[in-house]
Hints:
By secondary structure, the protein is of the alpha+beta class. It is built from 19 helices and 41 strands.
Amino acid sequence: MKRKHLIIPLSCLFALFNVYCSPSLPQTEQLAEQTTQPDAGHKEWAPDNTSSDEAPIDRVVETTILPEHTTEQKTSTDEPKKPLFERPSSGWCSRMAAGPAGKHSIAVDLSMAHSTLRFFGIHKGYPHVDGMLAKGLQQSSSASARALSGYTSDSSICVLSASTSRVESVQVTMKGDVATIIPGHGDWSLPANTQVAILDLRNVPTSPELQALLEKIVAQVITQDLPMPNRAVILHKGMKDEVFSAQNTYTNHITRTLGSTLLAKGKKELPLIILIGKLISPAVARIAGSLRFHRRAWIVGESIPTTIAESRWQGVGQAGIAFRTMELSNNNTLWPDTIQADHPMSHLETLTKKLSEKTELPALLTGIPQRPRIKPHHYFQKFHTQLLSKASLQAALLIAHGALRAFFPYFSTVGDRIDERLEETLKTATSTTLDDVTARNILRRFGESIKDGHCFVNYRGRSSAKGFMLVELDKLNGKPVIRRTAHTELKVGDTILSINHVSAEKWFTEEYKRTSAATPGYQFDMAARELNRMFGPVVLKLQSVDGDTRTVTVQPQPYEAYSKFAQKPFRPAGFLKDLHAEDVMYVDLDNKAIDQTDFNAVIQMMQNAKSLVLDMRGYPNRTSWQLLQHIATNPLPSPLFSTPEWKGPSDLRRSESSYDLQALTPVFKGPVAFLIGPRSVSSAEHVSTMLKQINRVTFVGRTTAGTNGNITGLVLPGLFTFTFTGMEILYRDRKPFHGIGIVPDIEVSPTPQDLAQGKDPVLQKAIEFLKKP
């Protein structure tokens, strides 16, 4: 079903320590049509069948049901003699039936388990659970299953050794007119003379297919449909930003869904007894609790902790964790903390005889639950207390991996290599002497794998940097050339030949290995920014535009000087008389330029122009958007926004939306040249795609960054933040944008000589194009 939705394109450009975040499109025009559809291309959150117990693995049954009903099933493998984790002697975890081992590498298993807990679990907050992961990694010294020990201090998380049990075929045994059913695979039927059915669910291990297996069996012994419990889970529309903006397009909230209905297939109504043992799996707890809540079955044996019914298992190596991910209710009534057994096991034979006489089942006793309620996860800028260490860096890598696996939308476009990169960077993190620079570069190396121009890694601790280099580079003829500088020993147009006696080619080759970007031009720009961060004097070998070479030593400058340098000069809006184009008007759409412009005066001036140059080689703001509406001869269609939407940890869909911006009067109807380049990124590309889709302008310059979509970020242990693009951007006809960008209609690149002489060949080419008859 379509619904109206607001989209606010938000992204940020980094200039090392400066973060430039500009306001985006005014919300008044952002009525978007949104649809939700299943996600066909996103990798499953729960890897294979190693998590939950809602859909294939096997189970073991007790070798003895009762002396009167002896049935044995053999397990395919023996339990480990020395379990990684001892079962607690009390609490709900002492009752939890362990699930299967993980099926991936330990690192990937651990990432998936922690991320499921972090984003969907009922807990005390991201800093709390992230800190437990870091603590466990500190105790285990590596990303192993023993790292789960960090969670044992929290009673809401259950850490157990994994089960190796497997199920055989379903078994039905008779004693008189009482049928005992042990769940298993295969078809079965109740003997015709059955008067009482016993479903033996004692000590069933957690497994992904168990829910479906139990429902199939229960359906055969009931004659009235069974409502399953309603669930409250956390719904994530994208990953809510933890770094830049407390309120943007990404949200999470609690959603409540009606439980399914188990369709009855039984031929006659039978009294039903469910046997519950000490160990109980979530699926068993849910279906037994549902039957008891609706007074459809007697519970015999042990009581049922509702915490287990609301929990999920995640295998990690030969161990795993269980934790609550939902809140169960029936008829607007929360399940009680415990579903009490109706009778102890010793009363079974007596109860069986009474049930033959159709004894009425009393209502389930309920009360006010004391377990924590489910709530959204809103932890904006809740920074961790863990300082930089090998353990905190490993935790940061695992958390970033899990977040990307769930919320990064471009794996089908850029390729999926994050598992291999996680293994690589974890190994580096454990084998390298760490400081803030090395640790940041390890995280950057991991981020490079997603080829995303919004992937930034920042360190919030005390940096070892000594200052800044006041320089901006451009890649011309394959070489780094100084575009702007405030150092007197450097000249605009100089080509950098070497950096600290390392050839510039080699320096950039190494830097590219840890620089995430979607296009080569923007990757150069992002890598070049690393030169701005200085850890001491830097020796540069330079070649002037005349071919002369020289070596200079550049001294670090204070932050105040760098901040001033970052405020780029701009050409004011007006007619280009100095370039002999008196009837061509120029407007710089960069946020800092247009903020200093009399907007109404510019709109009026445009009406007197024959043609228009709009410079989008910077970053726009709201005024920029509004100006574009005055050149639109048709409504401006936004791209298509496709955002991962998780309803709990098992239900992934894509939420799609778009909107149109209406033209504003007066409308400039003359030709428009639109200047772009490799630094045109995100919101700048957003406005470009809108203009491109209505063929309103001619693009002049170089290919843009190929990176659009709202940015989102993680706060990580070790005082790091990690960001990425959280939604996929497509043209309205569903053609891809990421990694392609806006390719200019007229390609123009400056030369070192142009820079040295202060010329702007892109602007000059635009004028030349506009002046053609």
